[in-house]
Amino acid sequence: MTVTKNIHNAVSSTEIRLNKAIAAAGLCSRRKADDLILQGMVQVDGMVETNPGRRITSETITVLGKHLQKPQDFYYYLLHKPVHTVCTVYDPQGRPTVLDCLPETVRKIRLYPVGRLDYFSEGLLLLTNDGELAQRLTHPRYHLPKTYEVLLRESPSPTDLATMRQGMTLTEGEKLLPVTVDVIRALPQGRCLLRMILRQGVNRQIRRMCRDLELTVLRLRRVAQGPLQLGSLAYGQTRVLSSQELSALKEEVGLLSCRNDKNVHACHAVKGDKTEAGPSPVMKKARLDYSKQKCRKPLKNAGKEKEPRVQK
Questions:
Q1: Which domain holds residue 65?
Q2: Set 118, 160, 212, 261: catalytic member
């Protein structure tokens, strides 16, 4: 059964586009809001609204099956994820989650991990409640390079390194893009420390690559994601993203924000507008249909029978 819930005062007295009001409430991205509106799943003051660009002020907004909140503050935290924690909000097996690493006051905020690190991996992990940014960061189109430090039990051969660099096919059949891999240093007992940069999001990619090359991973740590650096952040600790880091991150994924980001306890208020990278397929079709209808002109001889052409 579909549940319909209302929200009052979803936006301020300043006019705002309907799709932006839905995105600002934290329900979904603006492009997804366009799809919801065009599919007739949004009502304004009890009437179905199919125009994403409609300007609203204090009207009642209803979305089928989703409960909106008023425009929320956005928070951005960087965590040095420890091993033996899962990148999820809740684990049915009762294992520690990344939210357990957050200070008690921060846990009250509905933060979500962006991307994943497996149970035995550690390193940089972004947590936020900014749905649009999270969607961009996990979308293949905007996939940012991720840098890892990998400790191996044995040193890889030149052939192993060449195989990684040229792109390999996993045992399961998945074809991988070329990986940037460099030897940081050789260690005692034949161990080796590598730096690897990935440019695609394949589940447990490094561990599976090493498995196929008969290399044993002893430690796997993510040290960078796009412009974000783990730096000296202590193991298991968190910190707030700086305004410079946040701006650089948004620029990397095409969110050239006009927000006035004010960092107050990691709080970035939703203000201004975001520049979309492009309309969704549903939105493109709706615009195309509208353009055809608008540009369609009546023919001069409409309704008249065509005279037979006389052969000269």
A1: 4-71
A2: 118
